[in-house]
């Protein structure tokens, strides 16, 4: 028996923490040193050291390969939480779909402009001019996408936004690139383009199936059939390889809905959970929560170590035992939070098991080109990490310890842009980067430096979030 609805919905801090972990892990994975003596699990499985040459036939799974799925699952889970407010406000289904298309447009513009002002896109051998342009790009994006406080007058807010858009248009009109061309729609950030497609298509699918979630699973079955048929001659292969607007949409991007759509199911669960008031005392003891957490951490560790080491059948058996043990602990529940954890656990259990069954197919788990085992196993791991954050925040009261992750999760686009277009330009314009390079640091110290850079960026984003300066995309 769960408790009745609460008039004041709770914040989904665990989801914010998951998104924050994803974006900061993405930043860290981009600044760790390459070409050194670090182990292979510190990089994408298909980009092993020391040469980091992409090998499409090399299977494996590392923590770096988890970063994008973590963000995709969080994106999918946020769709019901965000769009349900539009329905509550009285918007029609068509109006909500239009708002999703509008959001897709703004994120698409973001992806194109950002790639045009990245330092190494502007110049493979950056000069001071390059760094100044990159820094200007960050300032312009800040003006374009910041959700200004209502305390400012509407005129001031509109003027700041228009300054940003005007600056973006003016800058892109005069810039030239190493290929001799100016602005190009084909020059865009591929990660943001994929996210654009995920938001639009994942959002529309949720809107039309929000009261019939089983239809969402039916769509996944159709997507599965299309992706399998795309490997054989016929109309599906022809459709899959075509696109009316290839710079913003390709059918192949829809494969990431294998993570986003389960994410919307997670979002439905969080949306329901937020409406319930929590009783004073949980029926599960702190020790039970601790054991569940230990089993989840162990399961994730076994998956990463086992699949990267290619101990596939041993990993499958070990993970199955761990998941069954955990299932026994979450089977009975009385509170809303316990039910949420129990249901999430079952979804994670199923996704992980499905992924392990797919593991031998397509030559083993791979990120590029992504295999079915990759989609489902990373979905399961992402759900398990969300459960860990839920337990830490709701039951062990660790929200203050995780606040920097939560703040970055609420403001992920600043974190995504911040290192390349803020910290790195400042380091080079002040000659600090050259001074650090002259120190000839060991590989271990360079990893520590990468951690420091990531922490500085996280602290900046956290402070901006506390000042309520959010980027709206």
Question: Would you write up a description of this structure?
Answer:
This protein is mainly alpha-helical. The chain has a domain at 72-398. It contains 18 helices and 2 strands. Strands 1-2 form a two-stranded antiparallel ribbon. α1 (13-31) packs parallel to α16 and α3 (93-116) runs antiparallel to α7 (190-209). The model is unreliable at 1-8 (pLDDT under 50).
Task: Name its key features.
single chain; 473 residues; disordered N terminus
Furnish the topology, listing elements before pairings.
Elements: H1 13-31, H2 63-88, H3 93-116, H4 119-122, H5 128-145, E1 146-147, H6 154-174, H7 190-209, H8 213-229, H9 235-240, H10 257-274, H11 286-309, H12 312-330, H13 336-358, H14 372-394, H15 403-410, H16 412-429, H17 432-438, H18 443-466, E2 470-471
Antiparallel strand pairs: 1-2
Q: Can you summarize the main beta sheet?
A: 2 strands, antiparallel
Radius of gyration: 23 Å
Strand content: under 5%
Q: What spatial order of strands do you see in the largest sheet?
A: 1-2
Classification by helices and strands: mainly alpha
Shape: globular
Number of strands: 2
How many separate helices?
Answer: 18
């Amino acid at each position: 028996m769960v408790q009745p609805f609460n008039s004041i919905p709770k914040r989904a801090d665990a989801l914010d923490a998951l998104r924050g972990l994803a974006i900061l892990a993405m930043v860290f994975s981009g600044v760790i040193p390459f070409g050194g003596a670090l182990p292979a699990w510190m990089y994408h499985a298909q980009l092993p050291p020391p040469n980091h040459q992409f090998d499409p036939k090399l299977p494996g799974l590392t923590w770096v390969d988890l970063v994008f799925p973590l963000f995709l699952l969080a994106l999918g889970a946020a769709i019901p939480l965000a769009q349900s407010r539009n329905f509550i406000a009285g918007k029609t289904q068509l109006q909500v779909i239009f708002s999703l298309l509008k959001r897709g447009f703004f994120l698409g513009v973001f992806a194109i402009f950002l790639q045009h002002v990245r330092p190494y896109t502007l110049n493979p051998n950056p000069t001071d001019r390059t760094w100044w342009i990159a820094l200007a790009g960050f300032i312009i994006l800040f003006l374009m996408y910041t959700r200004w406080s209502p305390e400012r007058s509407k005129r001031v807010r509109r003027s700041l936004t228009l300054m940003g858009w005007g600056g973006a248009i003016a800058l892109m009109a005069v810039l030239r690139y190493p290929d001799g061309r100016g602005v190009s729609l084909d020059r865009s950030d591929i990660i943001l383009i994929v996210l654009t497609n995920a938001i639009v298509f994942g959002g529309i699918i949720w809107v039309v199936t929000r009261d019939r979630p089983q239809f969402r699973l039916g769509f996944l079955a159709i997507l599965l059939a299309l992706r399998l048929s795309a490997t054989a001659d016929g109309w599906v292969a022809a459709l899959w390889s075509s696109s009316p607007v290839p710079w913003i949409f390709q059918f192949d991007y829809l494969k990431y809905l294998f993570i986003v759509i389960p994410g919307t199911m997670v979002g439905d669960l969080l949306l329901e959970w937020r409406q319930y008031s929590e009783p004073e005392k949980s029926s599960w003891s702190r020790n039970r929560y601790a054991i569940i957490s230990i089993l989840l951490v162990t399961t994730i560790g076994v998956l990463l170590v086992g699949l990267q080491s290619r101990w596939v059948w041993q990993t499958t058996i070990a993970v199955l035992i761990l998941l069954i043990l955990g299932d026994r602990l979450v089977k009975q529940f009385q509170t809303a939070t316990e039910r949420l954890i129990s249901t999430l656990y079952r979804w994670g259990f199923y996704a992980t098991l499905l992924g392990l069954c797919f593991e031998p197919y397509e030559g083993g788990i791979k990120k590029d080109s992504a295999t079915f085992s990759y989609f489902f196993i990373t979905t399961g791991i992402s759900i398990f990490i969300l459960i860990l954050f839920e337990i830490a925040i709701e039951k062990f009261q660790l929200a203050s310890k995780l606040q920097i992750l939560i703040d970055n999760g609420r403001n992920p686009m600043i974190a995504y842009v911040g290192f390349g277009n803020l910290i790195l330009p400042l380091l080079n314009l002040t000659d600090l980067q050259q001074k650090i390079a002259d120190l000839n640091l060991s590989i271990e110290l360079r990893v520590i430096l990468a951690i420091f850079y990531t922490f500085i960026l996280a602290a900046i984003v956290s402070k901006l979030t506390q000042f309520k300066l959010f980027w709206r995309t």
